[in-house]
DNA sequence: TCTGGGGTCCTAGGACCC
DNA sequence: TCTGGGGTCCTAGGACCC
């Protein structure tokens, strides 16, 4: 076993909320939540009252009456998140960014330049605090998984270095839900068998674990529990799918509702794909009903697509199929589209040879080729004048923005 | 008082092929 | 015609993460 801990996991603390407190000093030390209808992020002061991300704003206010809601400065989140990751880049090229506020780095072999991993971690924390004004926690360990757990343990605003010589003692006392991949369902299933700590999980016979969680999950968790998971840093991770969704509250099952919504979603996805010269073969649609039960339907095409209109038509067909199978449902609470099986292709050849051309060649409809040209024209106008400058008719107005576009964009992975 | 939006991966079963 | 086995792709659903 290599006896050095060289993996860092750096994680900005309560990121969006910390940025808001940085921008407006009067918010420092106070319970704040970014968002409104839904809490996108909460400050530590708010978390102390049980306020959590994803929680309805009203519920948060109940838990914490003095809670202050602030609108998001999304451009600032992007800028400061990028700047924090950049600090890691100063120590090693082996940086794997997980999200806007989180990254792994492997500093093996840099000790003669910058000091031990623990020293580097402390330097990163000091620099992020001094140069950006933000708190960041760092975990240092022999593997990615353990470094990630260590940063969780270090929070808030701390450093946790796990000595390889005693890593299992450290790990085995912790609760299972600190492990990657253990959420509420798995935690409950394990608890039913009396497995609460990572150590207990590590010592559960493989066969009974497999019965409980299936072969893949149990093998993964065992590797994590014994810290034998060898995953390396991946510096360029590309998205395997692109999607968009829209929560609708409670809308009647009617064409005038789902048609424009799907068109809007298809437009968002299509323009993202085209911007990266990507197209996808599989279109998946998700319909959530009033009771929050959801149904998905997918189709895989012979040729990849990226045109907004084509994507919208396929999505509509799928949604109609879902609705036909569920005639008892009268309200929709969410619609989603995702495109997967992404392929990078010379964009000009896209969709010229698609079967959809034939279907589209009805009077008054455009062919795949002209659709592609129309989309390109719209993409160009938007590049110059912004997203709102041109769009599919009423769709732009129709979109009941439950979440600001800025937030949506932050959540998008690089394609 | 029933919660956003963008993702990843796994599983089970069926179709199809060799 | 029947039996057996393996691999791949696809769909639907679920769990999880940030």
TrEMBL record:
Its EC number is 2.7.7.7. GO terms for biological process: DNA repair; DNA-templated DNA replication; error-prone translesion synthesis; SOS response. CDD domains: PolY_Pol_IV_kappa. It catalyses: DNA(n) + a 2'-deoxyribonucleoside 5'-triphosphate = DNA(n+1) + diphosphate. GO terms for molecular function: damaged DNA binding; DNA-directed DNA polymerase activity; magnesium ion binding. Residues 7-183 form the UmuC domain. It holds the Pfam family IMS_C. This is DNA polymerase IV. It comes from Devosia nanyangense.
């Amino acid at each position: 076993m290599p006896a050095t801990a060289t993996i860092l996991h750096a994680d900005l603390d309560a990121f969006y909320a910390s940025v808001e407190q940085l921008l407006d000093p009067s918010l420092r030390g106070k319970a704040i939540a970014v968002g409104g209808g839904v809490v996108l992020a909460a400050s530590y002061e708010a978390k102390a009252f049980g306020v959590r991300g994803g929680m309805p704003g009203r519920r948060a206010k109940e838990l914490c009456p003095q809670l202050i809601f602030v609108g998001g400065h999304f451009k600032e989140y992007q800028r400061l998140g990028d700047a924090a990751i950049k600090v890691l880049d100063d120590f090693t090229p082996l940086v794997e960014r997980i999200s806007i506020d989180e990254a792994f780095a492997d500093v093996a072999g840099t000790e003669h330049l910058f000091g031990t991993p623990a020293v580097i971690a402390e330097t990163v924390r000091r620099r992020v605090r001094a140069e950006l004004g933000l708190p960041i926690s760092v975990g240092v360990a022999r593997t990615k998984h353990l470094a990630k757990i260590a940063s969780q343990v270090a929070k808030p605003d701390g450093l946790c270095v796990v000595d390889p010589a005693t890593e299992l003692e450290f790990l085995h006392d912790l609760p299972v839900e600190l492990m990657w991949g253990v959420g509420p369902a798995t935690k409950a299933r394990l608890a039913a068998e009396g497995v609460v700590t990572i150590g207990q999980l590590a010592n559960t016979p493989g066969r009974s674990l497999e019965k409980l969680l299936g072969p893949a999950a149990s093998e993964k968790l065992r590797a994590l529990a014994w810290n034998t998971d060898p995953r390396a840093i991946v510096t360029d991770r590309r998205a395997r799918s692109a999607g968009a969704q829209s929560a609708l509250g409670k809308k009647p099952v009617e064409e005038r509702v789902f048609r424009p919504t799907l068109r809007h979603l298809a437009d968002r996805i299509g323009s993202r794909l085209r911007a990266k010269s990507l197209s996808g073969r599989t279109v998946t649609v998700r319909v959530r009903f009033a009771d929050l039960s959801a149904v998905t339907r997918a189709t895989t095409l012979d040729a990849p697509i990226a045109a907004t209109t084509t994507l919208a038509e396929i999505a509509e067909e799928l949604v109609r199929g879902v609705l036909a199978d569920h005639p008892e449902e009268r309200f929709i609470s969410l619609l989603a589209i995702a495109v997967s099986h992404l392929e990078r292709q010379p964009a000009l050849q896209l969709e010229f040879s698609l079967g959809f051309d034939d279907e589209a060649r009805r009077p008054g409809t455009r062919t795949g080729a002209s659709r592609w040209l129309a989309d390109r024209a719209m993409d160009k106008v938007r590049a110059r004048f912004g997203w709102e400058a041109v769009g599919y008719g009423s769709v732009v107005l129709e979109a009941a923005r439950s979440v600001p576009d800025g937030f949506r964009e932050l959540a998008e992975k690089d394609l």
